[in-house]
């Protein structure tokens, strides 16, 4: 009888271990698949970064004799590079997630990804985005007008345009800071940080939390 009970206990233990393994593998698979939209989004951002960088270079390289157009082209180039580098950083952090590692280590990797997106990427691009549209707009108008008149210079024809656009950019940046302050003030800081981190990261964190709780039970 004792041997039968021992055999039964061993069988139950093996079944429990198998169930745990299947549960963990299914949740980790959901974590892996859940991060795919973020990966796709980062590759799209990477591509746009390359496009903006090439556009900026192509613009200023033929206008080196006009300082303001040279500066504007370089700014667009730098904007493209910032998009490219941010996407590369996100992809690197995602690649660092080892799904065969202990759950705690996977959670730490995701925490590093969240921290980068919340504390660095989101604030930086909120500031850059307030002004990045200005050189893009000016470049587009200048390039559209040049085939009609090769001597046309938008900023010389409309000297007040750039200061007004910069003023709009400053107003946009101030508005961003006000909204951020208000959101934190009313207690929605976590909601804001979750939006910065992205739904893919939130879903992955939820799956890992389920695994951690299941193993504790």
Number of helices: 8
Structural class: mainly alpha
Largest sheet: none
Strand content: under 5%
How large is the radius of gyration?
A: 26 Å
Q: Output the helix-strand order.
A: HHHHHHHH
Q: How many strand segments?
A: 0
Low-confidence stretches: none
Ends distance:
29 Å
- CA-based shape: elongated
Overall helicity: over 70%
Mean pLDDT: 87
Question: Could you explain how this protein is built, in words?
Answer:
The protein has 217 residues and is an all-alpha fold. The chain has helices spanning 2-34, 36-60, 67-95, 103-145, 154-157, 161-185, 189-197, 199-216. Helix 1 runs antiparallel to helix 8 (199-216), helix 3 runs antiparallel to helix 4 (103-145) and helix 4 (103-145) packs across helix 7.
């Amino acid at each position: 009888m004792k041997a039968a009970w021992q055999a039964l206990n061993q069988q139950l233990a093996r079944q429990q271990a198998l169930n745990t393994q299947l549960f963990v593998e299914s949740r980790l698979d959901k974590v892996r698949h859940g991060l795919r939209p973020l990966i796709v989004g980062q590759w799209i951002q990477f591509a746009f970064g390359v496009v903006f960088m090439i556009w900026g270079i192509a613009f200023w390289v033929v206008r080196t004799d006009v300082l303001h157009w040279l500066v504007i082209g370089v700014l667009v180039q730098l904007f493209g590079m910032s998009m490219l580098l941010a996407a590369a950083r996100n992809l690197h952090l995602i690649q660092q997630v080892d799904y065969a590692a202990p759950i705690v280590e996977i959670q730490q990797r995701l925490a590093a990804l969240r921290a980068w997106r919340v504390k660095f990427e989101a604030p930086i691009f909120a500031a850059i985005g307030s002004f990045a549209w200005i050189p893009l707009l000016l470049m587009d108008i200048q390039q559209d007008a040049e085939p009609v008149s090769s001597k046309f210079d938008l900023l010389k024809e409309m000297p007040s345009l750039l200061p007004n656009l910069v003023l709009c950019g400053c107003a946009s940046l101030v508005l961003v800071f006000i909204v951020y302050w208000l959101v934190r003030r009313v207690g929605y800081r976590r909601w804001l940080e979750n939006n910065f981190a992205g739904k893919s990261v939130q879903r992955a964190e939820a799956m890992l939390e389920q695994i951690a709780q299941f193993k504790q039970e």
